[in-house]
Design goal:
The chain is built from 4 helices and no strands. By secondary structure, the protein is mainly α. Helix content is 49%, strand content 0%. It has a domain of 54 residues.
Amino acid sequence: MLDRLSAGPARHRPPNGLPALSARRLRSTWIVNLLATGISPAVVATEAGMTSPAGPAPYHQWVPPLPRKEVLRLLHGHRR
């Protein structure tokens, strides 16, 4: 089944001017979105099949910073 999933982007032809789909880029986008929503890097690593909680570290450069108001709310112990 994994072969069929990874072959999907190769079969898809985007309209002119758009980049081709890439399983690697789709996975990266998924990981960055999970991190951006505040999901623990350890959980993201497990779900992404990484062997270490440090696995998502390279993706943090693309995670947008939280707004200052959200940072203060989280620092004061409030959950999302």
